[in-house]
Amino acid sequence: MQKAQIPTYERIAIDLANRIYDGKFKVGEKIHGRSTLASEYKVSPETVRRAIKILEDVEIVESTKGSGIVIASRENAYKYIQRFSNLASIKDLEKQMNSLISERDKLDDQLFDTLRKIMDYSGKLRHTNPLAPIEVEVLPGCNHIGKTISDLKFWQNTGGTVIGLKRNGELIISPGPYALILEGDILLIIGAEETYDRVIHFMEE
After folding, report:
1. Where are the beta strands (DSSP E) in 113-156?
2. Among the four residues 62, 79, 86, 144, which has the most C-beta atoms within 10 Å?
3. pTM to 2 decimal places
4. Which one, of 98, 119, 7, lies nearest residue 53 by Cα?
5. What pLDDT is recorded for position 89?
6. Tens digit of pLDDT for each residue in 150-181?
7. CB 77 within 8 A of CB 19
8. Which helix (H) or strand (E) element contains residue 178?
9. Contact predicate 122/132, CB 8 Å
């Protein structure tokens, strides 16, 4: 069963109570008029009036004609926001989520940087490590342009497995057997030491 959503005016009251408790509004200080608060929270003056009425009822603020809205008690503000401690938990979770997103972005950057290094070293490593991919460009006039990896029976004819391809500056990992071979593609292939020569010969057929 879902919890009932907290009304806008009550959320504004909670926010104001938090600002009072945090010391942004001090006891004895006047806070903005209703119209200014309405503009700040992007709500109607009536919504603000209802929020202020809540704070008056729990003796957090006092509101009198001519004197405006005056902060009466930081302690009462604390008692009031304790009723809604789950909202504080939500804020903590939001901070945690933002931190995790930031960490994920850093890990993504490290991952792509490592992958780029692997690609840079691939030519040097292909004669010493069968799992280091070799790169073969699909040149204009290649008879295999427009065909899929499956159509070409690539592994059967070359002994190499296509693990990725570079196309228009983007890297496509594990393109699958139905990926089309297009002019300008750079195929990333793993295989035995003799695979490179077999792939070159096959692509020139």
Report:
1. 134-137
2. 144
3. 0.40
4. 7
5. 55
6. 898 998 998 888 888 898 888 888 888 888 99
7. no
8. none
9. yes
